[in-house]
Amino acid sequence: MSATQFRKAIASQLSRITSCPESQLLGLLGTPKTALKQQFGIPIPRLKSQRDPTEWSNELAHKFQPDNLIQEASAKGPFLHFSVRPTEYIKQTLLQVHNEQSKFGCHIADTPHTVVLDYSSPNIAKPFHAGHLRSTILGNFVKRIHQAMGYPVVGINYLGDWGKQYGLLAVGFAKYGDESLLEKDPIHHLYNIYVKINSELTEQVDREANEYFKRMEEGDPVALKQWKRFRDLSIDSYTSVYKRLGIEFERYSGESETEPYIQPLYNLLQSKNLIHTTDDGAWTVDLSAYDLGSPVVRRADGTSLYLTRDLANLILRQSPQKSMYIVGTEQSLYMQQMFKIAELASLATNMHHVNFGRVQGMSTRKGTVVFLQDILDTAQEQMLKNLKENPTKYNELLTLGVQQGDQHWVGKEAVDQVADQLGTSAVIVQDLIAKRVKNYSFSYDRMTAARGYTGVYLQYTHARMCAIERKANTPITPDCDFSLLEEKEAFELALTVSQFPDIVKSSYQSMEPCVVVHYLFRLAHVMGQANSTLRIKDADPKLAEARMLLFWAARTTLANGLKLIGINPLERI
Ligand code: ARG
């Protein structure tokens, strides 16, 4: 662990000469700065001593003995700085990446409890709106960052798949349903039927819908069979779209699954004395002591609500030790109410709402009602157009094809594949580039640009590095002469690489993917600078070897970071 190793060297010596515990000092040392000198620093006032910080800092700078890792300690007012030995730092960093490869950046959890993630969660027969898009992309990040921190995860897609509207959908299907359209494109077809039947909602239709849903609730096998078919086909269709984003769920659940747990939930809430009956007969839980109002958990007519089902679902989930709900900010109050009741009823603890802002201006060529598939198709088309603007590259792609894992595409398929991956990268980076709570406006033009802060730029940087590795014909080996990496660009690049594990941790702590995204742009930028000065072609073989390991380590770090945010790094564009 390069940065860790250097921090430890500083902390252990400093602990001896200050008598402060090593762990406290380690905590203060933080992420190394990308600077030629003084990469680590400690604000002496934080050591909380009676002594004058400036005087003490000076004294410590003199007492600190340089060693094989640390070259120098120096004082600047109350700050104590440490400079690493550059060659040693580069060496330890590159060796670490070489050792850990795709695991570089990962951590080991102290208590690796399973984390349940609730994300994406669209409603069947309704549009997959911007909120679902964000929940999907963010949720995938939340999943991957937990994995990188060493936690086992269970990703659940909690579908909106129950309620009166499914009765209405069934009535609509009897009138307008088309088996072949249902098989081909269930999501659009069911939505169209739903819109149509809603627009002609007469009393008679309403009655029929209610009756149908009642049959579903009573377990009528025919009604349930049809509903299940709609649900299964929708899930199949979603699964293939999620696949384009590299997303897989451990489980498809949904509101429908909670039915058997509703009564046990009521019993539990009653046994904990949490239920209040209002004058009209509805059941509420009084959360006024927490400023959270008195949400209803059972209507006067005995039916359950969205909140009831979310709570009942916790019984099904077997009271998880940690849960993350990736849901928009507008549901904040709702989430707090749900968490509070769950806590009071000892149903679950450690529940978190990973909230996010709105997306403005999202529409596709097919119209303003947006489905995930249409968003990805539109981004793909735009990327295809951009790729065609460079005929040489385009033709190269057509003839050489692309390799991904054990799959190889050639011709038009290769181009479509690359355009799709670039399109999804664009959508993902646009979504994760700012703090979660921020709103943003959706723009296909901006997000698909090859320059600027886009996923496309990151992909090009990665692919360019892969091309250098392919063309150079220089082995990637840890047995190289690190002292040859003496330029400041090399040191800066290694330092940037060494920050990655800290970046992963801090992104996890704030649950902000933008911490990783911003880091990746910085890394790509430093890679670009190093690439323009540190040539591999025509360099002496020993020097080429050392530089190759450096670039390979940077490229591996970029790939690991891209995967963390849900992007599949491309090797050839
Ligand atoms: N289906 C809901 C919606 O579209 C989102 C579900 C979020 N998850 C949950 N457990 N409440 O708004």
From TrEMBL:
Give the UniProt keywords, A-Z. Answer: Aminoacyl-tRNA synthetase, ATP-binding, Ligase, Nucleotide-binding, Protein biosynthesis
Instruction: List the record's Gene Ontology CC terms alphabetically.
Output: mitochondrion
Q: What is its EC number?
A: 6.1.1.19
- Which reaction(s) are listed as its catalytic activity? tRNA(Arg) + L-arginine + ATP = L-arginyl-tRNA(Arg) + AMP + diphosphate
Q: Name one GO molecular function term.
A: ATP binding
CDD domains on file: Anticodon_Ia_Arg (cd07956)
Q: Which residues form the DALR anticodon binding domain?
A: 458-573
InterPro entries per UniProt: aa-tRNA-synth_I_CS, Arg-tRNA-ligase, Arg-tRNA-synth_N_sf, ArgRS_core, DALR_anticod-bd, Rossmann-like_a/b/a_fold, tRNAsynth_Ia_anticodon-bd
Q: What class of enzyme is it?
A: ligase
One of this protein's GO BP terms? mitochondrial translation
Give the family from UniProt: Belongs to the class-I aminoacyl-tRNA synthetase family.
Q: Write the protein's name.
A: arginine--tRNA ligase
What is the originating organism of this protein? Phascolomyces articulosus
Show the taxonomic lineage.
Answer: Eukaryota, Fungi, Fungi incertae sedis, Mucoromycota, Mucoromycotina
